[in-house]
Amino acid sequence: MTQSTPRSRKAAKPAARAAKARPAAAETPRTIAVSGSQSGLGLAIRQRLQAHGVSVIGIDLPGKGAEVEADLSTPEGRAKAVEGVTERCAGVLQGAVANAGIDSSDAALTFQVNYHGVVDVLEGLRPALAAAGRASAVVTASHAALISPGVRESAAAALLAGHDRRAALYAGASAGGPYAVSKLAVARWIRSHAATSDWAGQGISLNGVCPGAIRTPLLEKDLADKVKGPIIRAMPKPLGEIAETGDLAGIFEFLLSPDSRYIVGQLIVCDGGVESMWREQDWPRPWDISLPRFLFKLFGPR
Ligand SMILES: NC(=O)c1ccc[n+]([C@@H]2O[C@H](COP(=O)([O-])OP(=O)(O)OC[C@H]3O[C@@H](n4cnc5c(N)ncnc54)[C@H](O)[C@@H]3O)[C@@H](O)[C@H]2O)c1
Q: What share of the chain in percent tops pLDDT 90?
């Protein structure tokens, strides 16, 4: 244990007094938008944030009781979500969680909600996040992108390029189906955008969370499926059980807090150890780059 010296004890008193006397600038209420806020993980994130004084603007399907009702599976719905949130936060937003998602065999619908519903909403809210001076954006991805066999890079690349039909064609061949492809595509989008001048350069820390199975209505539906159910049940559980939403909400809260500001472009896998158990040697991976290429990256044009 670190012993405090008489000198540091002395210094602590005025500092503590100053902290007490400090005006409540740090306690200015934060406003955070959460999509898929009315069920499962999104609801748990909403409740956790609200319990700690955050003003939450929920986005969910019409009739679900969210502050902003919008169907994220259509471009019009996504525009409505962005407009509704921007209006409610008066153009200044401290955080956004792109969490709404579905697991459907309908590839076109899955891509609309899980990929475009993330990218369009976050891009649309970026000016409001930038206006806050310092903000966070968190995407609910999934460990399905990392542990489903045969998820094709070409399918995710097609989605990122806006070729949804081609992505659906390539997704058909993989075990994870369109769901895993959509989650790989959002993960790639996070990695390629987070450190750019549009995001980190505007003071916005953009990251993703990759949960494993969590007990929510979405999982209950998958558990009832004849094919998916047995696979999910057979998954290893290094921690002994399937996660509850409360096991995940605090991770989002941390990623939305100023304390995590230096985490940028990361995918936080929180699946109780499944990915690290199965892919223990795959990460961290040393950087296989030649010295000239590295020097070009370091000193060349950006
Ligand atoms: N439950 C799991 O095991 C698990 C595992 C990994 C990742 N995830 C991800 O977590 C996120 C939340 O899922 P969940 O398990 O809480 O599911 P859920 O079904 O309980 O909640 C999803 C929410 O998204 C909303 N939503 C769905 N389609 C929408 C649309 N078109 N427009 C607006 N809102 C829409 C739903 O109304 C619902 O409120 C999803 O992105 C999912 O892929 C879940």
A: 86
